[in-house]
Amino acid sequence: MSDAAPFSSVAIVGLGLIGSSVARGVRRYMPGVRIAAYDADPAVRDTARRLGLADNIPDTAAEAVADAALVILCVPVGAMGAAARDLAGALAPHALVTDVGGSKESVLAALRAALPDALIVPGHPVAGTEHSGPEAGFATLFRGRWCILTPDEGTPDAPVAALRAFWEALGANVELMTPRHHDRVLAVTSHVPHLIAYAIVGTASDLEQVTESEVIKFSAGGFRDFTRIAASDPVMWRDVFLNNREAVLEILQRLTEDVTMLQRAIRWGDGDALFDLFTRTRAIRRSIIAEGQDDAAVDFGRRHDDSA
Ligand SMILES: NC(=O)c1ccc[n+]([C@@H]2O[C@H](COP(=O)([O-])OP(=O)(O)OC[C@H]3O[C@@H](n4cnc5c(N)ncnc54)[C@H](O)[C@@H]3O)[C@@H](O)[C@H]2O)c1
Ligand SMILES: O=C(O)C(=O)C[C@]1(C(=O)O)C=C[C@@H](O)C=C1
User: What is the pTM of this model?
Assistant: First the structure.
């Protein structure tokens, strides 16, 4: 185990974009930490073995987690319960169980129900791409990104500190919040934006007056950016919406009111209302960049820079 590594052995369950990025990150930033991994899909296990993502990739989840000090569930949020049930009775004593799911309240409930005696500290690295699968991951995915942990109030400090140190070793900045607050924040910053992208790309492809070839031909700029988001994994996003229903519906209601306001401004030629809103939104974009959080370009560089 390297000096900095907070866990001597980790088991990763689910070897898609996020699981394979964690595996690559552990190899690069915590050399010496033993990695075991499992994926329910045999083809993914084969690919992961070929890529050398872990020291051991057995054919059952129970074997993968048997000796792990940290178990990280990296499966779609709707599969968390099933993945956790596969581990029941197989966890090492004192193992810490965490996850990377994009919604937290329902995931925590599913993990608790499946593993009532386990020490669980849920997590969510707010970093990703529109790609999925074991070949899409890269070691630097979490660098400079936030990772949100949502421990219970009663959780002892030591495991939370160890998990914080783990994500920091992968390059992330860590913040703690309640699962409920997480779900409300992410509904605004991630979930509804994805829904809007899915909706506009679906609308464009349904338009009768504009042919599909025109949509493709003229998809520069704005629409093209939406198509990147709308190419994100259908299973992952179906599960996120079904598991963060309440917060997403609340934000959608607010959005609908704001869109109606814009409709009215356009109809009545209220240029000031449009100008004021667009000025405010431009300022938000600029403050995100000033905080170093915009990095389509940086990310592109990272992915191409990443030899792992
Ligand atoms: N993609 C992103 O941008 C992103 C970012 C942050 C967090 N997340 C979260 O990470 C999780 C994984 O997302 P991803 O993008 O890596 O998805 P992915 O589709 O790339 O990988 C998911 C993997 O989980 C496996 N799997 C499904 N059910 C399983 C089970 N019961 N047991 C074992 N393996 C199982 C699948 O075979 C697949 O290989 C999701 O919960 C998602 O919300 C995703
Ligand atoms: O950059 C992207 O492609 C993402 O969609 C990443 C993104 C996000 O919305 O910011 C997507 C889902 C997550 O759970 C966390 C991060």
Answer: 0.93
CA distance 32 to 171: 17
pLDDT at 77: 98
CB-based contact 80:101 (threshold 8 Å): yes
> 282 and 1 in contact (C-beta within 8 Å)?
no
Summarize pLDDT for 265-306 with one digit per residue, the tens.
999 999 999 999 999 999 998 998 887 765 554 454 455 556
3-state secondary structure 132-148: CCCCCCCCCCCCCCEEE
Nearest CA to ligand 2 atom 6: 128
Ligand 2 in reach of 243 Cβ (< 6 A)? no
Shortest-distance ligand to the CA of residue 237 = 1
Q: In order of start, what are the domains of the chain with their CATH numbers?
A: 9-177 (3.40.50.720), 182-293 (1.10.3660.10)
- ipTM here: 0.98
Please give all residues whose beta carbon lies within 6 A of any atom in ligand 1, as ranges. 13-19, 39-41, 44, 74-77, 79, 82-83, 100-102, 124-125, 128-129, 132-133, 233, 236, 240
Give yes or no for a contact between 26 and 33, defined as CB atoms under 8 angstroms apart. yes
